[in-house]
Amino acid sequence: MLSYFLLAFLTPLLALASDDGGITGPTTSSDAAGYSCDASNCKLPSCNCASTSPPGGLKPSDVPMFIVFTADDAVQSYALDSVNQFLAQRKNPNGCAPKMTYFTSLMYTNYTLVTDWFIAGNEIADHTMTHVGDPSVDEINGNAVALNALAGISQSSLQGFRAPFLEYSVNTLKRLYAAKFTYDSSATSSIPVTDPGTDAFWPYTLDYGMANDCLEVEGSCKGQPVLPGFWEIPMYAFFDNLGDTFTAHYNGLNRQLIGLYTHPFLSTCRRPTQAFVNASSKVTIGMINQFLDWAQATAQQNGVVDDIVSNEQLLAWVKNPVPVSQLDANGLLSHCTFPDFSFSTWYGCPEVEPTLSNQNPAQQVPDDEQPRRFRCEYSISRPIGPAGANFTGPAYVPFSAGVSQFPSGLSHLILHASLAVGLLFGIVKFSKHF
Ligand SMILES: [Zn+2]
């Protein structure tokens, strides 16, 4: 069980709340929400009612304990170092390195690092060009254009948005919908899961309007705005004054996910003139890693699948909620043994031993494509480059159709990024509920 000592440690983390989207109390009530959804007409994968119950009617015991990990703002080397120090040394139960979502804004961003981070399998999402609340169409779409033109992120890969300072309006949501974004993640779940009126809803579509932030966002809720198929992924709060928040989610009736929402800039240890910030950062870094150590160990001890995921990965599971009981207990990594040697791969073992005369034999496809949600994503299968072009050429050529050449300079960069260890961080933005 998470010690009270550690919970006390969460306090300074919450104190960072007001820097980017401070929440001072419940942002929704059931009256204000006035939410009503016809579950018989709202079916996955394209529609999901706002609900505290897991998607697809799954029992909570069949649901992984998700920890969503995101970061906001400019991407620079210190920022990726910051994220890496929490994730690079970890593995999810399926053996994959955890992936996360980076909500990127234009100013001060190093786009070469955005490319690297995306290639490493992480999600890149939109956080406006100049970091403004209630952003205009140009702020939203301009940042998407920049991510494509400067970092090679294809428009189809750019699915998500978070409003700076969490300041969004009904018009923001409508603009995202018009621009064909898949989801927004600016809303807040600010009522604890221990409260009967909790707004810790699983991600839901806006076919029947919003159900979060109803006291905060004018014209929202009570059935508005109607944006069919467009998802909201609320941000789930820690509540230090209520005791063991994670355990309440973990052992709670509905195993709602929990989030770690970071701001690397706020607590970097690489600002040499800010000793106080650096010292504070070290405390935060230790605290977060201690929490993740505990969460992963506790889940493992109890036989629970505990996954650190990006919003993209989470949404893929919500759309197609595979019960934990149907997942391969050994994960999705294939161990391939041949007469002369063995190796491991995420992509299915070759059916026969590769040889000089048979360099790329047909591969065994995993039993069920559904668990693909947890397969590690690698760049070679992801379109990237201006207009969706791939680094290896104007069009993606599957490996099974011929030998592809991975640029040596690029692989060096990825390796470098993967091994980088730094000391910096910024985190969670919620202040206290009471
Ligand atoms: Zn921001």
Automatic annotation (TrEMBL):
SUPFAM superfamilies: Glycoside hydrolase/deacetylase (SSF88713). The keyword GTP-binding does not apply. It comes from the Eukaryota. The keyword Signal applies. This is Family 4 carbohydrate esterase. GO terms for biological process: carbohydrate metabolic process. Keywords: Signal. PANTHER family: CHITIN DEACETYLASE-LIKE 4 (PTHR45985:SF3), PTHR45985. Residues 1-17 form the signal peptide.
